[in-house]
Write a structure and sequence with these properties.
The chain has 246 residues and is an alpha/beta fold. The protein is built from seven helices and eleven strands.
């Protein structure tokens, strides 16, 4: 399932700096504000639910993530949210939430067909009548992986003030059966040698995605190509999906 690769505490501490709040977070926050109860699958450090609670959200907020190091960051920043260690293989809910979300392209970490089916069935089961499951995946037509090159270096600052340089490199030249293999490298004075993570993401087109949703008893209610709710075009950067129980 969603195998959050930030299991190392030293890397988990860098996640928010590497992934600062942006338009996608604003999009999801607007949905959370409207929902009485929210489940965030693959919540990471919990930025979304932490912001909602800080704004005064009084409903039930639950974040689920398989990486204990990520939840250490979440709990430390906001203990007033239900932070749950695990994934939908071992944690299940029945008709308990008005909104289920997967943010930060977490859905793309589901690389196998059965992983996708299991996650979607679990999201469907967790929804109350009239609830929504909202998530995004990068549109394969935009070919984002072509920009994941070592010359595009991100420079961030760790909590101790030391600089960290981060870059990505695609392995194998591009997608193979819709899957992109790549490395993410961290380098800085805090480590004697660079730290390297190996990852795989799956890219699904809108038609294939809709088929998986239908199998799980979900139907596309709305779909956008960007965070401003622009149309889903062949080259739009995102496939942002709002699904409801069929």
């Amino acid at each position: 399932m969603v195998d959050h690769v930030y299991a190392d505490l030293s890397l988990a501490e860098l996640y928010d700096s590497l992934n600062p709040w942006g338009p996608g977070d604003d999009f999801y926050l607007g949905l959370v504000r409207e929902a009485g109860s929210v489940l965030d699958i693959g919540c990471g450090t919990g930025q979304l639910l932490r912001r909602a609670r800080a704004e005064g959200h009084r409903g039930r907020l639950m974040g689920l993530d398989p990486a204990a190091a990520m939840l250490v960051q979440a709990r430390g920043a906001c203990p007033d949210v239900e932070w749950v260690l695990g994934d939908v293989r071992v944690r299940r809910w029945q008709a308990e939430f008005d909104l289920v979300v997967m943010t930060g392209h977490a859905f793309q970490q589901l690389v196998g067909d059965e992983e996708i089916r299991l996650c979607l069935r679990a999201a469907r089961a967790a929804l109350r009548d009239g609830g929504r499951f909202v998530f995004e995946t990068r549109n394969p037509g935009a070919r984002a992986w072509e920009r994941w090159t070592p010359d595009r270096i991100h420079e961030i600052t760790a909590a101790d003030g030391t600089p960290v340089r981060v870059w990505h490199e695609v392995r194998g030249g591009g997608p193979r059966r819709g899957r992109v293999h790549f490395t993410e490298t961290y380098a800085g004075p805090r480590w004697p040698a660079p730290r390297v993570r190996h990852s795989v993401l799956r890219f699904l087109d809108a038609g294939t995605l809709e088929g998986f949703l239908a199998e799980a008893g979900l139907a596309v209610a709305e779909q956008y190509g960007d965070w401003a709710r622009g149309p889903l075009t062949p080259a739009a950067p995102e496939i942002i999906t709002v699904a409801r129980p069929a």
